[in-house]
């Protein structure tokens, strides 16, 4: 197996010793190339903090995070920015598209920043936008399309540079259930067809059921892990709901 990320005894604490919050509390896990993993947990369990550490936008209190064999916790600021640009793709709850650019221009911009050749950009953008079902909306601006179409554009933007890892923070959070379902199918296709490795934070069991593996967080620590194996999605969803009912958590189960 090809391990892409190795998280070793990572801690992230906020506050001082009188009022300390252990947002991430000695977490260790690995992610293999081609995995589609969800991080689930109740509000305040440390999901976003963990994602921010993996995304290099926040620094660990202690511990190490290796991408391949590079320890990103020891990189200097300018090295971190370069690492992020070259290795990571992001999909956020609120899309983060540029309103003054068309969908196609938003995706092109992501490749231009990587100084790719014009012909390669045109070909890649067209093939990815076609595969994600948004090619027909390419000339529209973000305000002219639906939330689901915007989010699929954000996925295309994350995918075109072939990042080592795509990090998604509650990507279905702002979508209605039909768009959420389409987006999750898109993620699955990105994973299966494009071989993208995806790590998705969600508090929604339905969204998590599309993943191959789930890490459950509680009070900043991993308390359980599920692997889908050969189960169908509905059976996996029931398994997820069983775990959630054990925690008595305040998670969404729709
Ligand atoms: N900048 C900060 N300063 C102090 N405490 C923080 C900070 N950011 C997060 N926390 C605390 O760390 C803990 C984990 O927060 P985090 O945002 O990672 O949880 P979460 O699982 O993503 O929650 P949600 O689902 O509500 O977004 C919480 O107790 C939170 O109050």
Structure description:
The chain is built from 8 helices and 10 strands. With 254 residues, it is α/β, with parallel strands linked by helices. It has one domain: P-loop containing nucleotide triphosphate hydrolases (Rossmann fold, 3-Layer(aba) Sandwich), CATH 3.40.50. It has a 6-stranded mixed sheet with strand order 6-7-8-3-9-10, with helices on both faces. A hairpin with a 6-residue loop joins strand 1 (3-14) and strand 2. The longest helix is centred in the last third of the chain and has 16 residues, at 177-192. Adenosine-5'-triphosphate (ATP) binds at residues 14, 21, 23, 41, 43-49, 203.
The secondary-structure element order is: EEEHEEHEHHHEHEHEEH
CATH superfamily: P-loop containing nucleotide triphosphate hydrolases
Query: Which structural class do the helices and strands define?
Result: alpha/beta
- Major beta sheet, strand line-up: 6-7-8-3-9-10
Residues in helices, as a percent range? 25-40%
Into how many domains do the coordinates divide?
1
Based on CA atoms alone, the radius of gyration comes out at 18 Å
What's the total count of β strands?
10
Low-confidence stretches: none
Mean pLDDT reading: 91
**In CATH terms, what is the architecture?**
3-Layer(aba) Sandwich
Q: β content, as a range?
A: 25-35%
- Name the CATH class: Alpha Beta
User: So what's the overall shape?
Assistant: globular
The CATH topology name reads Rossmann fold
Number of helices: 8
Tell me the major beta sheet.
6 strands, mixed
Ligand roster: adenosine-5'-triphosphate
GO molecular function: ATP binding; ATP hydrolysis activity; transmembrane transporter activity
Family: Belongs to the ABC transporter superfamily.
Organism: Sellimonas intestinalis
Keywords: ATP-binding, Nucleotide-binding, Transport
